[in-house]
Amino acid sequence: MLAWIFRFIYNAKHPNRRRQGNLNAEEIEAAEVFLFEVVQQEAFSDANDKRISFLHPFRDKDSIIRLKSSVSNRQDEESFRFPVVLPAKYPMVSRLIFEVHEKSCHVGIQGLLSLLREKYWILDGRRAVKDVISKCVICKRHNTAPFSVETPPLPLDRVKDAVPFEVTGVDYTGPLYLRSGEKVLVGLFTCAIYRAVHLELTTSLSTQSFMQVLRRFVTRRGRSKTIYSDRGTNFVGTEAGGGVPECDLVDRDAMCRRLKYRQRLQDNLRHRFRNEYLGQLKLMRQRSTSRAVTLDEVVLIGNDQEKRLVWPLGRIRERIPGKDGIIRLVRVETARGQLLRPIQRIYPLECIDTKKTLEPTSTLPPIDEDSSARVSNVKHDIKSRVPETVVKTTRSGQSFILIIEPSWLGKAGSFR
Fold first, then answer.
1. In sequence order, what E strands does 192-323 have?
2. What residues pair up with 316 in beta bridges, in sequence order?
3. CA 24/CA 21 separation, integer angstroms
4. Burial class (CB in 10 A: 0-12, 13-18, 19+), 252
5. What is the enclosing helix (H) or strand (E) of 333?
6. DSSP string across 250-272
7. Which InterPro entries would you find in this protein's record (predicted)?
8. Alpha helix stretches (DSSP H) within 61-124
9. Which of 194, 204, 218, 280 could join 209 via S-S bond, C-beta 3.0 to 4.6 A?
10. pLDDT score, position 357
11. Cβ-proximal residues to 192 (8 Å cutoff; 6+ apart), any chain
């Protein structure tokens, strides 16, 4: 834009040598030099400013402040050997960083900083780059972290005293291919308490095949009191089926000795389980929790099966708390309807000022009447010393501000 303004000024001054067509490299470079000069004049007093004195700065032929780098003897471009010094907190510098960020396909912090340092040296550049990238909507969509909540206590079926596989989780994994080319599946039975694993092979996902797998598991490990599954059709297809095969007849004395031996092992295992395993679970994992999700907030709905770029957007309509009162499930409205999703699958997109939502931890002390009177007197004294301003309009319609001289001006001892 500034280069086009310079061209307009040039064509106005030289009507016989008007420039037309696209901007050339010289015009763009002249506009950049002018912008750098304006920024440096407002940011630094001179080349010996104390904020940049350690960089050994100098002014080039265009009066631009550059630094003497350690690679100044390298045969390379002048902008690389002597980069331009720029301040960090300046709107034009932020726009420059964002432009390079977009041209480099939204590269990360370190990559963007390396690209900028090929031509510019921005004071506190890493922090300035972080601020710009944190405000980039595209980068926020790809890099935002999901909501997190405190880890809840384990349920009773995970910590109670029980025999192995008394509480079991079941699922299928696979498929696997045998050497003969046959496809098989693996039935996975996991003990919810001791984390023991039992595997069974099957060749089908039908309900009958699962009943055979369950029968073999019960024969080897005993009957489970509780079995958890993901409620697949092969798991709930036959509610009345199942059963345990009858045990073969064995000697009574041998069975009693075996039972006593297993009871001793069970008692020892329960003792070690309580002292060694449950003792470590007393301390919950220290996990950083994010801010609370708010109603009507626009969020991303995470999905492991799709790329983040195509994740749908949604709006929070309902927050569903868990047994401990912490929000762990939300109802999200999307373009295709409403979904129930856990809080770990929700990614925030909006920045909310958490300071405004904090509750006051203590009440303020009462205001002394004498102190409030003194403050009001000081405010009145300051207000009386500020000169009054009046907006006037000329006959041609132009407005200007008229400053009225205060009455106390010129009096001796007016300031105390």
1. 197-202, 226-228, 298-301, 313-321
2. 332
3. 9
4. exposed
5. strand 327-334
6. --HHHHHHHHHHHHHHHHHHHHH
7. DUF5641, Integrase_H2C2, RNaseH-like_sf, RNaseH_sf
8. 78-81, 91-103, 109-116
9. 204
10. 43
11. 157, 158, 167, 168, 169, 226, 228
The chain-wide mean pLDDT, for the chain, equals 76
Pairing of strands 346-348, 197-202: unpaired
8 Å CB contact between 179 and 235: no
Q: Mind listing the domains of the chain with CATH numbers? A: 2-143 (1.10.340.70), 156-240+263-280 (3.30.420.10), 298-354 (2.30.30)
Residue 122 CA to residue 97 CA, distance in Å, equals: 10
Which one, of 86, 85, 116, lies nearest residue 101 by Cα?
116
Higher pLDDT residue, 199 or 291?
A: 199
Residue 119 tokens read as 């031509």
Q: Which amino acid is at 27?
A: E
CA atoms within 13 A on the CB side of 335: 4
Host H or E run for residue 381: helix 369-385
Contact of 83 with 120, CB cutoff 8 Å:
yes
Helix (H) or strand (E) segment spanning residue 85: strand 84-86
Cis peptide before 321 (omega within 30 of 0): no
Residue 246 — pLDDT band, cuts 50, 70, 90?
A: very low
Asked whether 202 and 209 are in contact (CB, 8 A), the reply is: yes
Q: What DSSP letter does each residue of 131-143 carry, written as one string?
A: HHHHT-HHHHHHH
Q: What is the CA radius of gyration of the chain?
A: 37
79/60 Cα distance (integer angstroms): 11
Instruction: Write out pLDDT tens, residues 327-356.
Output: 888 999 998 889 898 988 888 886 554 444
Q: Are 80 and 68 in contact (CB under 8 A)?
A: no
276 three-state secondary structure:
helix
* Three-state secondary structure call for residue 410: coil
**Helix, strand or coil, per DSSP, at residue 127:** helix
Q: What average pLDDT does range 110-126 have in this prediction?
A: 85
For residue 9, give the 3-state DSSP assignment. Answer: helix
Selection from 225-229, 242-246, 250-254, 394-398 with the highest mean pLDDT: 225-229
Looking at the chain, the number of H-run helices and the number of E-run strands are 13, 15
**Contact (CB, 8 A) for 227 and 192:** no
